[in-house]
Write a structure and sequence with these properties.
With 69 residues, this protein is an all-beta fold. It is built from no helices and 3 strands. Strands 2-1-3 form a 3-stranded antiparallel sheet, with no helix packed on it. It is elongated, with a radius of gyration of 17 Å. The N and C termini lie far apart (57 Å).
């Protein structure tokens, strides 16, 4: 008998607002709704971060600290 491995269900993605480091050599980024500041600084190199967006898996932040505009 032949048993095929089940294909994993595709993870839904959406265009997500993020903050990314402004330094060329730094690849740090974070989701906007997981930040504590209005304009965060990079936790790795301490540079300023700029707003951007990426296609990311859908997540929900249900904490009291969720950043809201």
């Amino acid at each position: 008998m032949y048993y095929a491995k089940k294909q994993p269900e595709p993870v839904p993605e959406e265009q997500t607002s993020i903050w990314q480091c402004s330094q060329d050599g730094c690849s740090c980024w974070m989701r906007e709704n997981f930040t504590f500041d209005d304009t965060p600084i990079c936790p790795i190199c301490q540079s300023t971060m700029v707003e951007s967006s990426r296609m990311l898996p859908t997540l929900t932040n249900n904490t009291n600290y969720a950043h809201t505009k």
